[in-house]
Amino acid sequence: MTQGYGKLFVCATPIGNLEDITLRALRILREVDLIAAEDTRRTRQLLAHFDIHTPLISYHQHNTASRIPELIQRLKSGENIAVVSDAGTPGISDPGQELIQAAIQEDLSIVPVPGPSAVITALVAAGYDTNAFVFGGFIPRSRRGKREALEQVAREPRTTVLYETPHRLLDTLRLCAEVMPERDMAVCRELTKVHEEVVRGKPSFLLEHFEENSPRGEFVLVFSAVDESSIPSAVEEPGEELTIEERLVELLEQGYDKKTAIKTVAQERGIPKREVYSAAINLPASPPK
Ligand code: SAM
Predict the structure, then answer these.
(1) Measured from the CB, is residue 29 less than 6 Å from ligand 1?
(2) Which of 41, 98, 229, 240 has a Cα-to-Cα distance from 108 of 20 to 30 A?
């Protein structure tokens, strides 16, 4: 690398919980000459929280063409620059990649400063095979693009991670129920935040869940590797050998009320609750005394 040039630090920031910033990221954000931020207002809040006063400049998808030459020039003049996005790791479904590529072209040093990213956080939270996985970024918006992307996931044997927005979640789950009804999947919501939630099951179960609980916040979808048939259960020993009715009776005898027992069985089997209701129709409403 050329002597006298500054370095480009690619700096991950929290995806929700501010405690997730690393000590190294804090030091670098404090020490660099300039921070190139996707949204300067948002990054200013983060910096204020940690009492950091480094100058900011905007770098986002709409000004890359003009900003990149300016940032490269400043790096060449010896300034150290950190690039950050609104949340998580720059370059992962966020601005960063084009600046990194331009800096590499100019023989500048790239220093990754690792930290949170929703893709890895969701992958481990989902509990599926992590030996090999596919990350597909955001699910396409268009009907056709979305269908093609999900059909590709249906054929993909490895664990697959996709980003989705809350207002498109139900439509996406409907399509998942159509193209891969038997696939186990996890919907990871608001990771690292107060309302963090990971809901696992077949697409039809998840659809029903989010029809009842309106999708709010940020979402990652994780599709299990295809040879994984079992899902982690909220209740010990799901008793897969039992019929639905037998399993319901077992739960009622353990002291669960009927509503919770129905929800639990639906979750364990990854089936819609309405399928469990019919088996539950002749059972008592509350646990036997
Ligand atoms: N660069 C970021 C990263 O490293 O994860 C991703 C930025 S992308 C513009 C934003 C998307 O990431 C959200 O729409 C959501 O799909 C996902 N995401 C970010 N934070 C999240 C969180 N706390 N919980 C769940 N999903 C999150």
Answers:
(1) no
(2) 41
Percent of the chain's residues with pLDDT above 70? 93
The side-by-side arrangement of strands in the sheet containing 109-113 is 56-58, 34-37, 81-84, 7-11, 109-113
Q: Best mutation site among 10, 13, 15 for ligand 1, i.e. most ligand atoms within 8 A of its Cβ?
A: 15
Q: Is residue 110 domain-shared with residue 130, that is, in the same domain?
A: no
Residue that terminates a domain, selected from 204, 230, 256: 230
Torsion angle of alpha carbons 83, 87, 92, 93, nearest 10°? -110
CA of 228 to the centre of ligand 1 (A): 26
Gap from CA of 218 to ligand 1 centroid (Å): 6
Question: What is the rounded CA–CA span in Å between residue 82 and residue 32?
Answer: 7
pLDDT for 60-113, tens place per residue? 999 999 999 999 999 999 999 999 999 999 999 999 999 999 999 999 999 999
For ligand 1, the distance from its centroid to the CA atom of residue 260, given in whole angstroms, is: 31
Whole-angstrom Cα distance, residue 126 to residue 132?
A: 14
- Domain count for the chain: 3
Q: Is the same domain home to 103 and 167?
A: no
What confidence tens digit (pLDDT) does each residue in 161-195 have?
Answer: 999 999 999 999 999 999 999 999 999 999 999 99
263 CA to centre of ligand 1 in angstroms = 29
Kindly tell me the burial class for residue 127, based on how many C-beta atoms sit within 10 Å of its own C-beta (0-12, 13-18, 19 or more). middle
85 touches ligand 1 (CB under 6 Å) = yes
Q: Does residue 1 fall inside a structural domain?
A: no
In the numeric block, the tokens 């479904």 are attached to 93
By percentage, how much of the chain surpasses pLDDT 90? Answer: 77
